[in-house]
Task: structure prediction
Amino acid sequence: EVQLVESGGGLVQPGGSLKLSCAASGFTFSGSAMHWVRQASGKGLEWVGRIRSKANSYATAYAASVKGRFTISRDDSKNTAYLQMNSLKTEDTAVYYCIKTGEPLPDAFDIWGQGTMVTVSS
Amino acid sequence: DIQMTQSPSSLSASVGDRVTITCRASQGISNYLAWYQQKPGKVPKLLIYAASTLQSGVPSRFSGSGSGTDFTLTISSLQPEDVATYYCQKYNSAPFTFGPGTKVDIK
Result:
């Protein structure tokens, strides 16, 4: 069974840091791109960023709202993707989902994790 | 960056009604357009990809059309279980922007 499990969410103060993990199973993780999407309570979906596979040079891309503060990485030996969030703001409060997509062609978001909640508050 | 818009932002229809949601991209995206359904408290679910291809397991009352900048999601006969928010998304290249969503409920 294809599965993505996020972890690492919690309460953090403004200006703080947090690192989310996304553990993958049931598919060839090393050949997949991994995305992060967030959703604030009662709001829409916001794409956060993506990391491609080794075959595509682990290329990353980020939304303008998080560029320079968030970093996506992956460890193919552990089948895990990460989202390092620094300089957190109250507006980063949201549920964070990881998603896997195929490579190299553009692929829709068919497999989502259950999400992990991040709350940025003093 | 390409912007995605949706209309209407919400709608209320009767069971059995035909429902149409429109999505527009600010620039052409060929057919790299997906539709997602999100029920309250649940994870989004892929309904349609490549603008018109139904994801496996999705009821045939859902259909998609369009190419370039204008796209449509149609529910041919609205069912109570279709109450949800529907999002379109471009996925040809980064940023993989979502539309603002259309909330559908039963009249």
